[in-house]
């Protein structure tokens, strides 16, 4: 039977109380942490990840995304709506055609950094 090891520390592990107070003052707020968790949750779906990857280089219409991912337009539209509500993608209408692109460079940076992290050997 494996022995459980619990993480413990003594009073001296943080260095000083002022270090800890400084960290606490600069800690991310609960609302910001919740917003970040929501973005990561949106990126936690393989279909949405593939959609974002497809939109890295250029905007695409729902039909093209549907063909690319080999999924129905309704399913693609549902995922795009979720991403749009999270401000990860934006849309542009041209007549009856709706084109999607990444909302801003921050999303691209998050995505590319994550991809590089995963492929780093």
UniProtKB/TrEMBL annotation:
An annotated Gene Ontology molecular function: DNA-binding transcription factor activity
Domain HTH arsR-type per the UniProt entry, residue ranges: 28-121
Keyword Ligase in annotation: no
Entry-linked Pfam families: HTH_5
Superkingdom of the organism of origin: Bacteria
Transmembrane portions of the chain: none
The UniProt record lists the keyword Transcription regulation: yes
Protein name from the UniProt record: Transcriptional regulator
Source organism phylogeny: Bacteria, Bacillati, Bacillota, Bacilli, Bacillales
């Amino acid at each position: 039977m494996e022995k459980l090891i619990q993480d413990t520390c003594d009073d001296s592990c943080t260095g000083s109380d002022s270090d800890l107070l400084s960290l606490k003052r600069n800690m991310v707020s609960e609302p910001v942490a919740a917003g970040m968790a929501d973005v990561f949750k949106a990126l936690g779906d393989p279909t949405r990840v593939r959609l974002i990857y497809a939109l890295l280089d250029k905007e695409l219409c729902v039909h093209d995304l549907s063909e690319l991912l080999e999924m129905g337009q309704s399913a693609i539209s549902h995922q795009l709506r979720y991403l749009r509500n999270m401000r990860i993608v934006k849309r542009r209408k041209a007549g009856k055609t709706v084109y999607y692109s990444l909302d801003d460079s921050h999303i691209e940076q998050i995505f590319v950094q994550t991809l590089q992290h995963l492929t780093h050997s």
